[in-house]
Write a structure and sequence with these properties.
Arc Repressor Mutant, subunit A, mainly alpha, 40% helix
């Protein structure tokens, strides 16, 4: 067959030649050992936590090697594209400090010389390389009905097509040029398939940067390269784009590992050198029954990166938690270097510690508590107000009007050698400190102690003293001793049945009457902020 004639026949409207295209994408000039990585999501919805996990690896590999990190939007599946999704993706990367060196705003500015960075705008490039493969007899047109899909790597040929041939080989590879001409005249749509040389038996070996040496059966599938709308499948676009754009390391989920043999054959057919690969493990979460499930946008709200903003988590906490999933030695490093920037940690994106990372919200909360505990009250106020303006607008006026008071509330047990660690997200502030903004609605009272509660609170009105912490506590002890509570802990421990309780018991009663809770930050600071009249009123109401 005259393959050049076939290529001209199929791509009669082709506007670009691959040799001219390659002149527009010169080899990147990089420092020694510098890596070029890309984050290449599909704009089919929100940014998944697993995608951000990969972007974090991409960013750190590129930046720590003095290389380039760029964003490419893989929007070839126009039917599934969600309007505004690409802007959300870029916004989240930027907010979390992962601003790409190269990117493109849809319908707007392009930053970088290797665009377009939307695959839908690179259609002529894919057609040029598909034409090249057809002209060399390495690809062929397919007129079968199953040509619309994203991928048919696992698709099995119908039985009637499998007689006497490998079932992975497409029957259209045997069409004559005359048959093809006739189908084109009839207006039939076609896809472009790879003409695989695989036999379904031979094996290949390759080095995965994270998993080590992997052996797999070589590709034998005549896979679709261009769909019948002449948009590329991921497999073909990956080979063309990552070569032209100079990608040196591809970070992607391990679900793509079975596709490596196909990708190798496509790269080989094009005469391209493959980049290095890191196939990252999927992130899982335990359910209520203790079973492990893949983190899913349908089942887990935290799969959506916007969840953390809505809840008011500190971005640094999310980043540090995920870095610890990537490199488990980060946790010990952070303990030894509590105030050092993350950039000083010896991040290794080529050595992911966890084979099956488990997303643990409790662990994330602990990390976030630790980070927020080091904030000044002024910074806490700024972070709280910023969050409220986006997600709790009904509280903004109050926060602005009573900044001084809110800042003082935030400063209870803060800016001390051992600051409190109870806030891990800003959305919990008003629930956590509701008693600072109104009388409690409920009280944590032990039914059997109601009589003692009332006795202490009725008496305490005569001992209320807030001039200093020492004076306040001295009065509490005087009252406690008068009512039969131990003021000497040694005596109490030695003979507890001789007392109604100790001073801590009395303080708990006072705390519950004022806050409704048995546990709270420093009681004296709370009482001082509320003021003597408010305390007296609350005690009276409680009694």
């Amino acid at each position: 067959m005259d393959y050049k004639k076939l290529a001209d026949l199929l791509f009669s409207d082709n506007k670009s030649d691959f040799t001219e295209i390659e002149k527009k994408y010169p080899k990147r000039i990089l420092a020694k050992d510098a890596e070029v990585t890309r984050f290449a999501p599909s704009p089919t919805g929100f940014m998944h936590l697993g995608g951000f996990f990969q972007a974090l690896i991409d960013f750190n590999i590129a930046k720590r090697s003095g290389g380039v990190f760029y964003l490419r939007i893989e929007d070839t599946d126009q039917k599934r594209e969600v309007s505004g999704a690409s802007a959300i993706i870029l916004g989240i990367l930027t907010e979390y400090g992962l601003l790409p060196d190269e990117y493109q705003l849809k319908g707007g500015v392009t930053v970088g010389d290797y665009g377009p960075y939307y695959q839908s705008e690179r259609k002529e490039i894919y057609k040029a390389y598909a034409k090249k493969l057809v002209s060399e007899g390495k690809a062929f047109p397919c007129f079968c009905k199953k040509t619309e899909g994203l991928s048919d790597v696992k698709e099995k040929r119908e039985k009637k097509f499998a007689v006497g041939v490998n079932e992975d080989k497409d029957p259209c590879r045997n069409l004559t040029i005359e048959q093809i001409e006739q189908m084109l005249k009839e207006g039939k749509k076609f896809s472009i398939r790879l003409k695989s040389n695989g036999d379904g038996v031979s094996k290949i070996k390759f080095e995965d940067c994270g998993k080590g040496e992997v052996e797999m059966v070589a590709n034998s599938i005549d896979a679709i390269l261009l769909k019948n709308d002449l948009m590329p499948t991921y497999h073909f676009a990956h080979a063309v784009d990552d070569t032209l754009m100079g990608t040196t390391v591809v970070v992607r989920g391990e679900e793509w590992l079975p596709s490596f043999p196909l990708h190798k054959e496509i790269f080989d057919a094009l005469g391209f050198k493959q980049p290095k690969y890191i196939h990252t493990p999927l992130i899982y979460k335990f359910n209520e029954k203790g079973n492990r499930n893949k983190l899913s946008k349908r089942k887990h709200p935290e799969a959506d990166m916007r969840f953390f903003d809505k809840e008011g988590y500190e971005k640094q906490a999310v980043v540090e938690y995920l870095i610890n999933l990537i490199n488990s030695n980060f946790e010990n490093w952070r303990k030894a270097n509590p105030d050092s920037p993350i950039s000083e940690f010896a991040f290794n994106g080529f050595k992911i510690t966890a084979n099956t990372p488990i997303f643990d919200m409790i662990k994330l909360n602990d990390i976030s508590k630790e980070i927020i505990s080091k904030f000044s009250a002024e910074r806490c106020y700024g972070e709280l107000l910023s969050w409220a303006r986006e997600y709790s607008t009904e509280n903004v006026d109050y926060l602005v009007k009573d900044k001084e008071y809110v800042t003082k509330v935030l400063n209870i047990d803060r800016e001390k050698p051992k600051p409190r660690k109870d806030i891990y997200k800003w959305s919990m502030f008003f629930d956590l400190f509701d008693y600072m903004f109104g009388v409690p609605h409920t009280y944590e009272i032990d039914e059997q102690k109601k009589t003692d509660f009332c006795e202490v609170l009725k008496t305490y009105k005569d001992y209320l003293e807030l001039s200093s912490k020492d004076a306040w506590f001295d009065n509490v002890k005087k009252m406690a001793e008068k009512l039969g509570y131990a003021v000497d802990n040694k005596a109490y421990k030695a003979n507890p049945e001789s007392f109604k309780g100790n001073v801590a018991t009395v303080c708990e009663y006072i705390r519950v009457a004022i806050t409704g809770r048995k546990n709270s930050p420093d009681l004296y600071e709370i009482m001082t902020l509320l003021g003597e009249k408010e305390i007296s009123d609350r005690i009276s109401q409680f009694v």
